[in-house]
Amino acid sequence: MSDQTSPTVRKIIHIDMDAFYASVEQRDFPELRGKPIVVGGKPDRRGVVATASYEARVFGIRSAMSCSKAYQLCPTAIFVYPRFDAYSAVSKAIREIFSRYTDIIEPLSLDEAYLDVTEDKLGLGSAIDIAKSIKEAIKNELNLTASAGVSVNKFVAKVASDMNKPDGLTFIGPSKIKAFMEKLPVEKFFGVGKVTAARMKAMQINTGADLKKLTEPQLTAQFGKSGSFYYKIVRGIDDRPVRAHRETKSVGAEDTLAEDTNDDAVMHDLLKQISETVASRLEKYQLSGKTITVKIKFEDFKIITRSRSFGVAINNAATIYKEAIKLLEEADIGFAKVRLLGITLSRFYDEVAPEKPESNQLEFEF
User: Fold this and answer.
1) What architecture is the 250-360 domain classified under in CATH?
2) Is 111 annotated as a binding residue?
3) What's the pTM?
4) Residues in the active site (predicted)?
5) What pLDDT is stored for residue 363 in this prediction?
6) Residue 258 parent element (H or E)
7) pLDDT band at residue 364, thresholds of 50, 70 and 90?
8) Residue 85: exposed, middle, or buried by beta-carbon count in 10 A (0-12, 13-18, 19+)?
9) Is 16 a known ligand-binding residue?
10) Which residues are marked as active site?
């Protein structure tokens, strides 16, 4: 008799809320229910769609699309500005539901997370039963729907959660992974964006089966380190653990100007608004940063960044704003017209000190 024990098969759930921002708006404002909702800005300025309700998606509206394009596709759509405080509060309630079932939770954003339920905290019996129970709790307690993917690793669970939206539940067990990966279109692979997908298709790589024909050296030669990852996941190999504590590396915000401009007053006004947004997010996460970075995108879509680091961490809007103005001036853009501005804080303390002497605190505004 062998004294070797079989490795534990992990049970991973990926939960993804359905049209999260738009669903919260429709829940909180009954007059929006059943109507095409676009969250992210107004159609008369160059904002982008944060998310759209399913009623709007039937017109072809998608996240990251310009609001003006969304309006062209659906002139009857209702455009609303995001209420991040409301979404954050709902996200916290969702996280509390997750914590009843497992302590190993890796949030990816306000509306999605990985859960490792290998240890059955409530003794429900299976990962599928746990996923069903989580979905029911979210629906009953928060009046929202979520889709879930269940599998033995993070990659497959994430892809599975997107297969039967909205309000879906998809299980892909170990015996099904090989066939599933071979049929999967390359654009569905983690880390494969539009540009990489186009490169792959130009190489006649359209599905996982096509990808599987290439050796690891061939893939790394074409796609760098990502090639090695593609080689593994197309074979169902994904050893990445669910990380219970993901360290926040940076907090930032950006916005597109209504028109390309080199008008200092207009750019300063936008930087002030962005500074206030970042300060609010830093406060929410109880963070302060030692490095500020300003992002500048020009009318020709060229992007430059300028950064400055400090000996003490900062988190208030006035200081962020002042330093952002300095960095914009140092960029010396001349007569070039600017399309977008952004501000990011990084190099965090673990917490914002509850009280800091005024003399030790730079005056930032975000």
Assistant:
1) 2-Layer Sandwich (3.30)
2) yes
3) 0.69
4) 112
5) 28
6) strand 250-261
7) very low
8) exposed
9) yes
10) 112
